[in-house]
């Protein structure tokens, strides 16, 4: 992913003094080390739980100067160093109120094909070791990519094109609500997509589709694996699940079948869904076969449509599939 601009500003937080900004005067030169940092930063960011949304409308209470400053940068009315330094100044005040440790604000402007992204993250340091030219072991400060409590990623192309509600994402730090909310306010971010809820709805739609089609167990398992593999791969790359593309992958002979099922049943899903990795990891199918009885159901149905009574070793199915119900009635 080619780097168009990159910069690092340091925010120091002494023990008994206000936080202070040590700004860089110009962007970083391109280097292999910068490429490696960008790759590691993207990988770490995609593994975090995130909120998804957009910039609040100008004039609203949630609006921030950042969106207009970014527009000036894109129009080449503002240079990258000034854009990032202005944001870093606001971030310094936020950190002074909520954090007691120093950190480096990394901001990257990158291009990937026709897409263009702005990524920013506050990274803290950890103690490590290095080997110098004399093969001696020496202490070294390292950027801790795993400790990323504040970070955001903006799809610049989607933002400028308009019409999208999910071109902006930011890390949702569950351990520091006030800090996380303050960071979203600096961005002027307005949450408009519930990634976890959208992913759960997608999985529910898929379960209904499999049941409706009355697929054999092997075919059902193959389609489940296809969905999870595709959605997980999109999550690892920070890209949304596209319903039409997923539908084509699930059934090459009827590439619109799953997409039409979603639209006809009106699940309220957006054409593109930001996949939630935690929700995907929880999705699996319980299967079992014994004594002429074969049972298979999706894990999220346990506790709702399906209940397991461990004390009496009973499985209770509350919503019997229509085709099975008709077969049972015919035996009476």
From TrEMBL:
Stored Pfam families: NA37 (PF04245)
Record's keyword annotation contains Cytoplasm: yes
Keyword check for NAD: no
Top-level taxon in the UniProt lineage: Bacteria
Cellular localization per UniProt: Cytoplasm, Nucleoid
Entry keyword set: Cytoplasm
Similarity remark: Belongs to the YejK family.
Protein name from the UniProt record: Nucleoid-associated protein YejK
Organism of origin: Halomonas mongoliensis
Classification of source organism: Bacteria, Pseudomonadati, Pseudomonadota, Gammaproteobacteria, Oceanospirillales
Name of the coding gene: yejK
């Amino acid at each position: 992913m080619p780097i168009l601009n990159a910069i690092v500003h340091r925010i120091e937080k002494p023990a008994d003094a206000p936080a202070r900004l040590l700004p860089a005067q110009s962007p970083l030169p391109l280097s292999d080390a910068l490429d490696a940092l960008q790759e590691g930063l993207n990988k770490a960011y995609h593994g975090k739980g995130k909120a998804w949304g957009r910039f609040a409308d100008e004039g609203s209470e949630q609006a921030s100067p950042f969106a207009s400053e970014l527009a000036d940068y894109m129009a080449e009315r503002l240079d990258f160093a000034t854009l990032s330094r202005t944001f870093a100044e606001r971030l310094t005040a936020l950190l002074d109120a909520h954090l007691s440790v120093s950190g480096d604000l990394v901001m990257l402007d990158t291009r990937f094909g026709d897409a263009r992204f702005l990524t920013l993250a506050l990274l803290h340091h950890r103690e490590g070791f290095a080997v110098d030219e004399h093969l001696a072991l020496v202490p070294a400060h390292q950027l801790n990519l795993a400790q990323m409590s504040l970070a955001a990623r903006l799809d610049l192309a989607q933002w400028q094109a308009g019409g999208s509600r999910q071109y902006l994402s930011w890390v949702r730090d569950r351990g520091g609500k006030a800090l996380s909310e303050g960071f979203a306010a600096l961005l002027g971010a307005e949450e408009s997509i519930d990634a976890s809820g959208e992913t759960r709805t997608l999985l529910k739609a898929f379960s209904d589709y499999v049941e409706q089609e009355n697929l054999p167990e092997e075919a059902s398992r193959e389609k489940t694996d296809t969905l999870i593999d595709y959605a997980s791969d999109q999550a690892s790359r920070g890209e949304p699940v596209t319903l039409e593309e997923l539908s084509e992958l699930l059934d090459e002979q009827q590439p619109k079948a799953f997409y039409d099922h979603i639209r006809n049943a009106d699940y309220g899903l957006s054409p593109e869904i930001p996949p939630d990795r935690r929700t995907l990891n929880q999705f699996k199918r319980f299967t079992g076969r014994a004594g002429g009885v074969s049972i298979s159901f999706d894990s999220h149905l346990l506790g709702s449509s399906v209940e397991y009574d461990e004390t009496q070793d009973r499985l209770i199915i509350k919503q019997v599939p229509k085709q099975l119900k008709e077969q049972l009635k015919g035996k009476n």
